[in-house]
Request: fold
Amino acid sequence: MLAFLALIIEQKLGDGTPCLYLSLTMEMAVPRDRNGEYQPQLIKKYQNKELYDIDISDSTISRISDKILPIVKEWQERPLEEVYAVVFMDAIHYHVRSEGRIVKRAVYIALGIDMNGKKDVLGMYVGENESAKFWLSIMNGFKNRGVEDILIACVDGLTSRRP
Reply:
């Protein structure tokens, strides 16, 4: 099953009006059913749904932002475990509209597995593009949040990495 949800709050368009774009694309893998008895309730078999460009007022965007941003900030600054057995670090690249232009952004994601085997998203950050320098700043942030050791760090082929 593949599901994708993007919520982009853009507050600086060419004319200065804030906009909220919600894009939802879902592709469902229907399980095999030898007797033909399985009937999904929300999305019918082999059906895809897409929603784009939902118009929402400026005040609604402001209210949503005011409610979400403190929660996101608190989550990003929460204390972490002292030791992680494994930390996976990668970035996903998206094209987004910024100030009336389409630009490429990287969303950095760090997923940790603690010593008890529990998975946790350690952080998600937005940057211009994926770089070892940005990852270093994220790792320093983890240290400031209590991480003392990572036994295995799984990363892709970034240059300028030091052991």
About this structure: The beta strands are 2-10, 19-27, 49-51, 83-98, 101-114, 119-127, 149-154. Residues 72 and 124 are 10 Å apart (CA to CA). DSSP finds two helices and seven strands in the chain. Confidence is low (pLDDT under 50) at residues 1-14, 20-24.
